[in-house]
Amino acid sequence: MRERSADRRQRRGHRARCRKILHDRAGHQQYPHCRIRRSSVRAIDPQRSGALSMNLRLAWRGCAPGRRQRGSAAVEFAVLLPCLALALAPMIFCARYMWHYTVAQKAAQDASRYMSMVPVVEMRAPALAVQAKEVALEIARRELGELAPGEELRDADVLCDSNSCGFRAGTVPRTVKVSIMFYMHDPIFHTYLGPWGLPIEVNAVTPYVGK
Q: Where are the bilayer-spanning segments (predicted)?
């Protein structure tokens, strides 16, 4: 009996590892089927396969991010966004203010450099000195016009020593000073700057080197 049961088990295992397929081999027309043995394939226990699939599902659920995690990340971002905006606003404002101040300083230096190289003949004549002064102020206006939005000179003057250029006839100054004062109007922070804006005042002094 034991030998018969062992023989049956061996046959069942052999059938489980083999399957029949059709073939068109010309040398064996009398055998329409051919067996292919799969020695590495074993009969799969249904209970074991079910447990394996359940473990895979649990592992996948543990690795994939859940909806709660995504929701908490969105809430944290919504809370941190206003704080981040409040932290960046002062830095952006300071950067824009320094940009306006740098442009104004360069405009004053260019105007004073032009005025310091005006010929002596023109500096001694009041009318010609006034014309040279207007040209220097126009240089400063054009450079300030590059700002966004463009600023206008409301209070600017060119001084030769301590007086306005062209005020004293027949004299040659030792230094030329350009003073520029305007109000900064910013499209982003206009609510906090008020109706007049933020005042910016710069001065540039250059020795007179005209001949």
A: 77-99
